[in-house]
Amino acid sequence: MSKKLLLKNDHIPGINTLAVYRQNGGYSVLEKTLTTMTSDAVVEEVKKSGLRGRGGAGFPTGLKWSFLAKPEGVPRYLVCNADESEPGTFKDRYLMERIPHLLVEGMIASGFALGAKTSYIYIRGEYFYVAKILEQAIEEAYAAGLLGKNILNSGFDHDLYVQVGAGAYICGEETALLESLEGKRGNPRIKPPFPAVAGLYGCPTVVNNVETIAAVVPILEMGGDEYAKIGIGKSTGTKLISASGHINKPGVYEIELGLPVEEFIYSENYCGGIKGGRKLKAVVAGGSSVPVLPTELILKTAAGEPRLMSYESLGDGGFATGTMMGSGGFIVMDEDTSIVKNLYTFARFYHHESCGQCSPCREGTGWMERILHKILDGHGTLKDIDLLWDIQSKIEGKTICPLGEAAAWPVASAIRHFRSEFEAYVQNPEGIKDIKHYYRLNNERAVAG
Amino acid sequence: MSTAEDITFKPESLEKAQQLMKRYPEGKHKSALIPILHIAQAEFGGWLSAPTMDYVAKILNIQPIEVYEVASFYSMFNLQPVGKCLIEVCRTSSCWLCGAEDIIDHLEKTLGISVGETTADGRFSLKAVECLGSCGTAPMMQVGADYHENLTIEKVDTLLEKFRTEDKQSRYC
Lengths: 449, 173
Known about the structure:
The structure holds 2 protein chains of 2 kinds. By secondary structure, chain A is α/β, with parallel strands linked by helices. Chain A has helices spanning 18-23, 28-36, 39-49, 61-66, 91-98, 100-114, 128-143, 174-181, 210-222, 224-229, 261-266, 295-299, 311-315, 318-321, 339-353, 359-376, 382-395, 403-427; strands at 77-82, 118-123, 159-164, 205-209, 231-232, 235-236, 238-245, 251-256, 259-260, 280-284, 292-294, 308-309, 329-334, 438-439, 445-446. In chain A, the strands form 5 sheets. Chain A has a 5-stranded mixed β-sheet. In chain A, strands 3-2-1-4 form a 4-stranded parallel β-sheet, with helices on both faces. The radius of gyration of chain A is 22 Å and the shape is globular. The N and C termini of chain A lie far apart (46 Å). In chain B, strands 2-1-3-4 form a 4-stranded mixed β-sheet, with helices on one face. By secondary structure, chain B is of the alpha+beta class. The longest helix of chain B has 12 residues, at 100-111. Chain B has 2 domains: 4-71, Orthogonal Bundle (Arc Repressor Mutant, subunit A), CATH 1.10.10; 85-163, Glutaredoxin (3-Layer(aba) Sandwich). In chain B, α1 (11-21) runs antiparallel to α2 (33-43). In chain B, β3 (141-143) and β4 (146-148) form a beta hairpin. Chain B is 40% helix and 10% strand. Chain B has helices spanning 11-21, 33-43, 50-60, 64-71, 93-97, 100-111, 153-163; strands spanning 85-90, 124-129, 141-143, 146-148. Chain B contains 7 helices and 4 strands, in the order ααααβααβββα. Classes of the chains: A alpha/beta, B alpha+beta. The interface between A and B is large, with 61 and 50 residues.
């Protein structure tokens, strides 16, 4: 199940420069695309590839592209979502830092497919040094005639800019991102209209994740049908997984979709097992927003089948026993991790990042953080656990954007699968100081207090 | 008290701001607001005062409230003065799992301040922040624009020594 399409050249010294990128076949796909294909044919290949949005939602990219409205005389925009802020996710940063030209090439080819003359890469402000790397790549591409007017004598004009954000998780939501790009607060828009009809400056716009746009390059290189043969079922192609937490080898791994979760965690080719030879306790498989699963459910589905790294297998069993592929932010927790404390860090995060537009999210995230704090402090009651459950259920589905769900699901899943741990905290407050919920550096566990 | 009239960008910053405004379609130059606020923050001591924001409004020909409401939304914009060296330690899940609390405790003890405070000499400000996308190299902290990863207590001490004389607060410059 080892197949590299995006990161096949990431080890080559100097691959971040145009010269080395081209020596290794870079921009040959763009040349083929611009000189031999129509824009509709590009969209068709992406549709055939079965590529699904790699930012988290997993929506079919070709279908998203086909929704783009094309009124006469109105500009269309392509915007790349490089806001990567989902806790546990750092794959886009790796890709942009190592192989910036892959994204630039993907942007130009995708811009051609969509008939967009201008595109923007919106990158989170904290990734400032990565923005500089991208700007350098773009400058090289302009100088080589790969951007600007009449690219490679194809008659296609395209301008590409990097836009730096300023610290707001919510700007990873596509309509909040567009608001931010227009110089406003990142408040998500009410949909419809969708960006495909009214996006940036009210014009038809496609917003795609970094990895999604980069994947367009290998898709056009091998053809959509060939790409669709990689992976498993409707989870076609490869996916970048950001692996972190209590594993021996954290980092970014490109996997062929369908790899067994157990192999990903324990194989020396990937995470290399749990640090210190400890036991696995739980995994958050797709970034902080997706349900946490205990060992028995992340390694095997409820039906006892091996759980695979694919959209379908990770989702098998719904939220009762399954989770989601999400962004591929794979956070591993060993046997001594406090699920309650980890959940508290998520709850604090969502409270901090709620834009405040919708009251269920604005108020609910704060309540969840405070109740978890109270439980961790030894002042919780059994009723607080029910109250947490009640609050999350009143946020889910009741907000303009999915940040509501993102805040609710970690809480719901932690209580669903680890209720006894919450009960231990509230029933034995004295015992809290003996609970190993406080991680020390060098991965030593220390008893708090 | 200074006003927007007393504030001007250095010529090269003004030039950069004007170039930025050209990136967008006619009439959509407000899109340059966030990048220009980064420039302003870097130029005026690492934070955005009301007169600084008024000045940015003037450059963009928009109402001051349009600048305030944006500056107050994004966590990278400081609306209060900060130390010459702004230390931001990530504390979300993966960093916590790998010992971020020890890093924060150590910084608080060494600098003699709590999270959210600035040292009396105005050199260091300490903030605990949410996920900075460095989960595989946790624990981490960002100082100015730079990422410092796979932190240990020893590594933090070495960095602090360096930052006693090196200013690290600006980002977009």
